[in-house]
């Protein structure tokens, strides 16, 4: 197979062609993919035939997998399910069901698992059932945003630490956690400016889970986090992916934000399976 790497967006992202994930990847092929991941941050593979076992095997090439936390419908497994289908009955889950309210948090720009002590390296999302319209996933590069910052601001950001919290981010969409869920979800501290160890490029650990800047007054910290988020996610800097059957996307949680967009969950079935690869240690 000959691998081709084609840009998805002027700022970041690439489609990888000529790869059959289900057939298994030799070391040389995976090395090309891993290199493209470090370089382009978001990798799209089309026309894949992926089931849960194949997705786990592919994901583990990037590193050990996380287990999904309290409150996600797939809690305790290696999958974070993005779906309106009740897995026990096959029926559509009503809009006001707690499982759907939990997923409303995905409409906010975020980096998966930035609320964990060890933030994630990357996420891998693949299609099982795709609605005929709606349900895009949008991506933005905090690396591209960082490059635009004036030097004085870059200097000011260096060394800052941000507290990330799933309890905080879910509160933004009105999702109420039980006391037990809250107890299982302590806040985590992340370095704001994160450097890629392979190419030295810097990105920002921001997004919905980013609650406050440590040792800064609340309002001043909020204003800076909001300003950085607005810069990162300005429309022309975003890539919006319209899913087709057989798509699989890998994204770098160290330097990318993403968000879900709505679809008619009362009419269409949607089942996406996400695996999340753990990082190699605390970022602070
Ligand atoms: Fe996500």
Explain briefly what this protein structure is:
The chain is an alpha+beta fold. It has helices spanning 27-40, 52-60, 98-103, 142-148, 151-157, 166-171, 179-183, 218-232, and strands at 4-7, 14-17, 42-45, 79-83, 120-129, 137-141, 161-164, 188-191, 193-195, 202-204, 210-213, 238-241, 248-252, 256-260, 271-278.
CATH class: Alpha Beta
* Strand/helix succession: EEHEHEHEEHHEHHEEEEHEEEE
Quickly give the structural class: alpha+beta
What's the name of the CATH homologous superfamily? Clavaminate synthase-like
Radius of gyration, whole Å: 18 Å
- Give the overall pLDDT as a whole number: 95
How many distinct beta strands? 15
Sheet with the most strands?
7 strands, mixed
What would you note in describing this structure?
This protein starts with a strand and ends in a 6-residue tail after the last strand. It has a single domain, classed as Clavaminate synthase-like (Double-stranded beta-helix, 4-Layer Sandwich). α4 packs across α8. It is of the alpha+beta class and 284 residues long. Strands 1-2-3-13-5-15-4 form a seven-stranded mixed sheet, covered by helices on one side. Strands 12-6-14 form a three-stranded antiparallel sheet. Helix content is 24%, strand content 25%. It has eight helices and 15 strands. β1 and β2 form a beta hairpin. The structure holds fe (ii) ion.
